[in-house]
Amino acid sequence: MTMQLSPANFHAASSNVRPLLMPSFPRTETIEETLPFTVRMASDAQALSKAVEIRHAAYKRHVPLFAESLKEPEATDAEDGVVVLLAESKLDGTALGTMRIQTNRFKPLCLEQSVALPDSLAGRTLAEATRLGVTEQRIGRVVKNVLFKAFYLYCRDSGVHSMVVAGRAPIDRQYARLMFEDVYPEKGFIPLRHAGDMPHRIMRLKVADAKAKWQDAMHPLYDFFIRTSHPDIHVGATKNNVLPFAPLKTLRLR
Fold first, then answer.
1. Residue 165 near residue 157 (C-beta atoms within 8 A)
2. Residue 102: CB partners within 8 Å, gap ≥ 6?
3. Max intra-chain CA distance, the chain
4. Cα(13)–Cα(91) distance, rounded to whole angstroms?
5. With 0-12 CB in 10 A as exposed, 13-18 as middle and 19+ as buried, what is 244?
6. I want to staple 17 with a disulfide (CB 3.0 to 4.6 A). Which of 21, 94, 128, 144 is the partner?
7. Which residues of 52-74 are buried (b: 16+ CB within 10 A; e: fewer)?
8. Buried (b) or exposed (e) across 119-132, using 16+ Cβ within 10 A?
9. Torsion over CA of 147, 153, 159 and 162, rounded to 10 degrees?
């Protein structure tokens, strides 16, 4: 069974919900759903340029001073173990959203420049989502959902143990709604060097537990993430980001 949603349908579906929420489909079978945009890895200079453009525009709306440092690609974008996702309109190729995923295959996560991860994550395969940005159009809410589904699929298929995110207020609430949990609840918001020293709440979600947690909680995105196939999401692994490895020892700060 295949269902195609037009941009108008997406606008209607997202008009009365908060970011990262979408109505659950009342069904048991798996369906295929096409999107009015694609999500892929930015594998060339042109795609990376489009990702950087939408990244800068999104940050400029909320943290304009920090956004000045995001006008050009960052060194991290090209490192091994890192992929930059790009959401593009099928209609005209316009960039609609982006997310960067960094694994700890080749080096510690960016957030480890600022805080030491707990022993429960030591020796684990981890992936950190950073530089999330979406269009300010209403469809941006759906694009954000799809980027997080792509993050989950990438981690699931690459053997990642835990997804890690860092959110400034009030964005951290979106991660909490996805059932991410605090890594250090007693520390609250921690300034992060790679985020302009802005305070962030560091959170995690074990990949193997995500499906059951969403199902048990009757999460409104369970069907969207688990029971719906989206052929427009392309996050296949490549030789530099597959993770059947023993990760580098996590960085310990003194």
1. no
2. 76, 79, 81, 82, 109, 110, 127, 128, 130
3. 55
4. 20
5. exposed
6. 21
7. bebbbbbbbeeeeeebeebeebb
8. eebeebbbbbbbbb
9. 50
Q: Which two tokens stand for residue 68?
A: 């000045």
List Cβ neighbours of 93 (8 Å cut-off, separation of 6 or more).
none
How far is it, in rounded angstroms, from Cα 205 to Cα 126? 10
Q: What predicted TM-score, i.e. pTM, was given to this entire model? A: 0.83
Tens digit of pLDDT for each residue in 4-59? 554 444 443 443 334 444 444 455 678 999 999 999 999 999 999 999 999 999 99
Taking CA atoms, 31 is separated from 177, 215, 231, 238, in Å, by 24, 17, 11, 27
Question: Residue 187 and residue 86: Cα distance in Å, rounded?
Answer: 33
* Residue pointed to by tokens 């979600």: 205
SS3 state at 129: strand
In this structure, the chain runs to a length of: 254
Tokens 């993050």 belong to which residue? 151
Strands (E) in 7-161, as ranges, are: 31-34, 37-41, 82-89, 95-103, 126-134
Question: What amino acid occupies position 254?
Answer: R
